[in-house]
Design brief:
Layout lengths: L1 E6 L5 E6 L3 H9 L3 E2 L7 H15 L11 H11 L3 H6 L2 H20 L8
Antiparallel strand pairs: 1-2, 1-3
Helix pairs in contact: 3-5
Protein backbone atom coordinates (compact mmCIF):
# COMPACT_ATOMS: atom_id res chain seq x y z
CA UNK A 1 0.00 0.00 0.00
CA UNK A 2 1.06 3.52 -0.77
CA UNK A 3 0.36 6.33 1.67
CA UNK A 4 -0.32 9.79 0.28
CA UNK A 5 -0.74 13.11 2.05
CA UNK A 6 -3.88 15.19 1.52
CA UNK A 7 -4.89 18.60 2.80
CA UNK A 8 -8.44 19.17 3.95
CA UNK A 9 -10.52 22.10 5.11
CA UNK A 10 -8.72 24.51 7.38
CA UNK A 11 -5.32 23.14 6.42
CA UNK A 12 -5.82 19.78 8.13
CA UNK A 13 -3.36 17.25 6.70
CA UNK A 14 -4.24 13.58 6.40
CA UNK A 15 -2.21 10.53 5.40
CA UNK A 16 -4.42 8.09 3.51
CA UNK A 17 -3.60 4.65 2.22
CA UNK A 18 -4.29 3.99 -1.43
CA UNK A 19 -6.46 2.66 -2.92
CA UNK A 20 -8.85 5.16 -1.36
CA UNK A 21 -12.27 4.29 0.00
CA UNK A 22 -15.32 5.46 -1.94
CA UNK A 23 -15.99 8.20 0.63
CA UNK A 24 -12.45 9.59 0.37
CA UNK A 25 -12.68 9.57 -3.46
CA UNK A 26 -15.90 11.59 -3.17
CA UNK A 27 -14.16 14.09 -0.87
CA UNK A 28 -11.35 14.51 -3.40
CA UNK A 29 -13.79 14.85 -6.31
CA UNK A 30 -15.64 17.61 -4.44
CA UNK A 31 -12.38 19.40 -3.71
CA UNK A 32 -12.63 18.94 0.06
CA UNK A 33 -9.35 17.00 0.06
CA UNK A 34 -6.41 18.00 -2.13
CA UNK A 35 -3.28 15.90 -2.62
CA UNK A 36 -0.37 17.82 -1.10
CA UNK A 37 2.00 16.96 -3.94
CA UNK A 38 -0.49 18.60 -6.34
CA UNK A 39 -0.19 21.83 -4.35
CA UNK A 40 1.63 24.02 -6.93
CA UNK A 41 -1.83 25.09 -8.10
CA UNK A 42 -2.70 26.06 -4.51
CA UNK A 43 -5.66 28.38 -5.05
CA UNK A 44 -6.05 29.42 -1.39
CA UNK A 45 -2.55 30.90 -1.48
CA UNK A 46 -3.43 32.90 -4.59
CA UNK A 47 -6.73 34.07 -3.10
CA UNK A 48 -5.30 35.19 0.24
CA UNK A 49 -3.55 38.37 -1.01
CA UNK A 50 -6.66 39.44 -2.90
CA UNK A 51 -8.78 39.03 0.22
CA UNK A 52 -6.33 41.03 2.31
CA UNK A 53 -6.33 43.82 -0.26
CA UNK A 54 -10.12 44.02 -0.42
CA UNK A 55 -10.35 43.94 3.36
CA UNK A 56 -8.18 47.02 3.65
CA UNK A 57 -9.90 48.89 0.82
CA UNK A 58 -13.54 48.06 1.39
CA UNK A 59 -14.49 46.32 4.61
CA UNK A 60 -18.15 45.26 4.54
CA UNK A 61 -20.48 46.59 7.21
CA UNK A 62 -21.00 44.19 10.12
CA UNK A 63 -24.63 43.08 10.50
CA UNK A 64 -26.49 43.64 13.73
CA UNK A 65 -26.65 40.81 16.24
CA UNK A 66 -30.34 40.26 15.42
CA UNK A 67 -29.82 40.17 11.64
CA UNK A 68 -31.04 37.12 9.73
CA UNK A 69 -28.78 34.12 9.13
CA UNK A 70 -28.66 34.93 5.39
CA UNK A 71 -27.25 38.38 6.17
CA UNK A 72 -24.56 36.85 8.36
CA UNK A 73 -23.76 34.28 5.67
CA UNK A 74 -23.25 37.05 3.11
CA UNK A 75 -21.04 38.93 5.57
CA UNK A 76 -18.94 35.82 6.27
CA UNK A 77 -18.49 35.26 2.53
CA UNK A 78 -17.39 38.90 2.17
CA UNK A 79 -14.79 38.24 4.89
CA UNK A 80 -13.43 35.23 3.01
CA UNK A 81 -15.51 32.22 4.05
CA UNK A 82 -15.98 29.64 1.32
CA UNK A 83 -19.48 30.15 -0.16
CA UNK A 84 -20.15 26.40 -0.03
CA UNK A 85 -19.35 26.36 3.69
CA UNK A 86 -21.35 29.53 4.31
CA UNK A 87 -24.45 28.11 2.66
CA UNK A 88 -24.54 25.31 5.25
CA UNK A 89 -23.33 27.44 8.18
CA UNK A 90 -25.62 28.55 10.98
CA UNK A 91 -25.90 32.16 12.08
CA UNK A 92 -23.72 31.35 15.10
CA UNK A 93 -21.09 29.73 12.84
CA UNK A 94 -20.95 32.87 10.70
CA UNK A 95 -20.76 35.12 13.76
CA UNK A 96 -17.88 33.05 15.17
CA UNK A 97 -16.07 33.16 11.82
CA UNK A 98 -16.55 36.92 11.60
CA UNK A 99 -15.25 37.40 15.15
CA UNK A 100 -12.06 35.46 14.40
CA UNK A 101 -11.42 37.33 11.14
CA UNK A 102 -12.13 40.73 12.67
CA UNK A 103 -9.80 40.06 15.61
CA UNK A 104 -7.05 38.86 13.26
CA UNK A 105 -7.40 41.95 11.08
CA UNK A 106 -7.38 44.26 14.10
CA UNK A 107 -4.22 42.60 15.39
CA UNK A 108 -2.62 42.82 11.95
CA UNK A 109 -3.45 46.52 11.60
CA UNK A 110 -2.13 47.33 15.06
CA UNK A 111 1.06 45.42 14.29
CA UNK A 112 0.46 42.99 17.15
CA UNK A 113 1.67 39.63 15.89
CA UNK A 114 2.51 38.15 19.28
CA UNK A 115 0.51 35.27 20.68
CA UNK A 116 -0.68 35.28 24.26
CA UNK A 117 0.84 32.70 26.56
CA UNK A 118 -0.16 31.80 30.05
Amino acid sequence: MVTREYQGAGGLRLHLDEPLSDEMRKQIARGHLVPVDDAPEAEPVKKAPAKAETAVEEAPKRPGANAKAETWQAYAIALGMDPEQAKDATKADCQDYAQVVEEARAAEQSGDTTETTE
